Sequence to fold (104 residues):
Amino acid sequence: MNLINLGNASVKGDAIEYSEQGVMDFEIKSEVGGETVSGTLGASEYTSVTPAGSSPWTVKMGSSNFSRSATASGITAADASVSCLIAFPIPPNDAHLFVDTRKS
Fold:
């Protein structure tokens, strides 16, 4: 699974402006057996992780200690790409995950 740290952004009108980039924590958890893989992504980094257990998986990504985070569940492709963006101001915005799978 590819995990991508898109960092922080501010929503201003109809535009998104990137601001400071920070580290993000991640956790991939098997919805079947509960096995997990977790770690940290540096600013603007991405990594490839082999999910533990079997699909489907739940992915949680967000700021350090998940104080601002988003969760996507039901991911069945081990080679999916999951990107996280945290949008400010909070509220009304929050963290968002974008899940993409490879076209067959």
